[in-house]
Amino acid sequence: MNGEGFPWFFGIFGLVAVIAVISMVVGFFQERKRREELAALAARLGLDFSGGRFRKFDRRYPAHGFLRKGSNRYAENVIHGQMGEFGVEAFDYHYETYSTDAEGNTSTDHHRFSVLVFESPFPLARLAIRPEGLLDKVSAAFGWDDINFESAEFSRKFHVSADDRRWAYDVLHPRAIDRLLRSPRHPITLHGRHLTVKTKYRLEAAELGRVLETGYHLLDGIPDFARQA
Q1: 41 and 205 in contact (C-beta within 8 Å)?
Q2: Which of 3, 42, 72, 86 fits a 20 to 30 Å CA distance from 224?
Q3: Interstrand relation of 71-83 and 86-100 (parallel, antiparallel or unpaired)
Q4: pTM of the model
Q5: What is the pLDDT of residues 73-127, one digit of tens each?
C-alpha cells in the first residue's frame, strides 16, 4: 500500500469525527430543551421538578418488576407532587442489558422510557388497560376474550382485564372511556394504591402532560360507591 491512500483515510476519519461532535452538540441542546419543557410542565401543574439522576427507584416501587431489570438503573427528570387528592410521580427511567456475539464482543443496550405513578388514598382493585394488539384479536377468536364495553370503538381499541368485572365497569364509565379514546394510548395498571403508566419510550412534555391529566381524571372519576375504605 502506497502513501497516496492515507490522505483519503484521514479525511474520512476527520469527517466521521466532525459528524460525531455535531451529533453530540445537537443532542445536548435537544436534551436541555426537553428538560426545560418538562420543568415548565411541572410548574403549570403546580408540581416540583428535579433534573438529576436518582438511584433505587426499584426499591421505591417494589411491586413494579420492570424497574428491577438490567443494571445501571436510575430515574431522572422527576416530576412529583400532588394533583387533587392523589400523589403523583413521573420520571424517565434507564437500565442497561448486555449481549455477546459469536466472536465474543460485548455490546450494551440502553433502555429508556417514561413512567407515571399516581398514589391513591383508597385501595384499587387490579385493572389493566392497554392498546389492543394482534395477538389479542387472535385470542378473542378462540374465545379468550377481554372485558367488553358498550362502546364498540373502545372495546376494539383497548384490551381490558380485571379481577372484578363489576369494578372495571364502575371505573370505565362513559366519561372515562371517552377520555381514554382521546388520549395517548399507553398501558395503564391499577392495583393496590397505585395507578401506573409505563411507556415504550421517553415522552415529550406535551404528551406527558396529556397522560398525567388522563391518569388524574381516571382516578378522580371513580364513583364514591366504588371507592372501598
Answers
A1: yes
A2: 42
A3: antiparallel
A4: 0.83
A5: 999 999 999 999 999 999 999 999 998 888 888 889 999 999 999 999 999 999 9
Task: State the residue for C-alpha cell 383497548.
Answer: 158
In one-letter notation, the amino acid at residue 72 is: N
Place of cell 441542546: 29
